[in-house]
């Protein structure tokens, strides 16, 4: 459940920060009359994300009749989720420094066009996070059919993200988002490695890949699947006591190089002014923007 909580927290906070930037810009620009359009766009994005998540689950449980088809579908969604997680982590590291300015520029253009453009801009700014969350959650929660724990954990992560976002906007909370995104990014890489491992196993179950019975090792005697810590490792990172050779190769081949690339020191560029990583101004100002900009370089203090 920790994995799905982390997904909800990370994706939810990214979406919350985006919405905070839009709201702060409208408030500071004396355009509060456009706030209903922003919230309408955000609401539509959330609704479609929930619908997308339901559609994935419905396809897997109701539309696919055969066991092999379901395993193949789960394998494909797992690979897609890994791609999205990897892209999201590195995109946030690279583009967060300019995201606030880009959002303000797009919103300025949308204000000149009209209400629908404002709602559409807010919708597009949030829908990506929502679709990613639905896909990654489905892939991370596979194998927990009939268990409401992962869904509750996801909702808990999103609620936590919203609360943090509101407190940041109101300047009631100081948080180093650079370190936050570094730690959550590293943990999500391990979660993604587990999802990839699960996808490889599903491909083997569907008969697409060989080696279903070729175990890399078997430490069941030391890591009893019935224990709480074995369940925790399996739920967080899909670490199992008897993985196949291909599963193990896939986990190591993804986790090691991606972690090294993500954690390597970013190239420092000369800057005329220092970038702060704490919110120091009231909600309608640009404190939230400073947080988002600072998140682009995980190694910065």
Which residues sit in consecutive blocks of at least 5 with pLDDT less than 50?
A: 272-301
Helix and strand succession? HHHHHHHHH
Number of strands: 0
Average pLDDT reading: 80
Structural class based on helices, strands and sheet pairing: mainly alpha
Query: What multimeric state do the chains show?
Result: single chain
User: Counting H and I runs of at least 4 residues, what is the number of helices?
Assistant: 9
Gross morphology is elongated
Cα separation of the termini: 30 Å
Instruction: Please describe the biggest sheet, giving its number of strands, its sense, and whether it closes into a barrel.
Output: none
Beta-sheet strand percentage? under 5%
Helix content: over 70%
Radius of gyration (CA) equals: 21 Å
Features:
301 residues, mainly alpha, 72% helix, 0% strand, elongated, disordered C terminus
